[in-house]
Amino acid sequence: METRRPPPQAHPGSGSQAPARTWEVGPGGRHLGRFFSGGRKEAGRERGTDGRTGPREGHTASAPPPPPCRQGKLRLQKWYLATSDKDKKKMVRELMQVVLARKPKMCSFLEWRDLKVVYKRYASLYFCCAIEGQDNELITLELIHRYVELLDKYFGSVCELDIIFNFEKAYFILDEFLMGGEVQDTSKKSVLKAIEQADLLQEEDESPRSVLEEMGLA
Length: 218
Known about the structure:
Blueprint: E1 33-37, E2 46-47, E3 53-54, H1 68-71, E4 73-78, H2 85-100, E5 109-112, E6 115-122, E7 125-131, H3 137-155, H4 160-165, H5 167-177, E8 178-179, E9 182-183, H6 188-206, H7 211-214
Antiparallel strand pairs: 1-4, 2-3, 5-6, 6-7, 8-9
């Protein structure tokens, strides 16, 4: 009698995932801001009838991703509590592992250490906040969304490259929105107006002027 092996079955949810990035926030609404990039998009390799391995035509599968701590790339961080560099690195590493390991349909709130973590994914970008137990998770979620709206308004469909090459603008927007980890202005128009005024002042300072103009004689 000839024994045949059953055909291998595809695992559910094996589709490739887009890279991930994160912003984080700290205790008491005091936001430890962070961006990190994660998951890699890869095509799976399968063995064909000729014994060679390679992507099967018309089929794409994702290879097991490397550990999040190897994928994660921190793009932006903001600390409002005194924390040593050693503890910062440890917290970043742990939160990368926790957040990136969670499935898309899981709750956006979780308990971590003595804090609550609130995160949300926008396309390939993760925004994450660590808050104290008495703080409201839904308000924190709205805070994340408002910051994303401000970034989108300023950069126009913000992406990772905007954060990399204009990180000082991302920090400035955050500082106009939050002060000491607390929301200082909920109006998008007011925040964007302050940013535009700061940009105009910067352009004036950088524009070349003659000696007579500097003395007010021109």
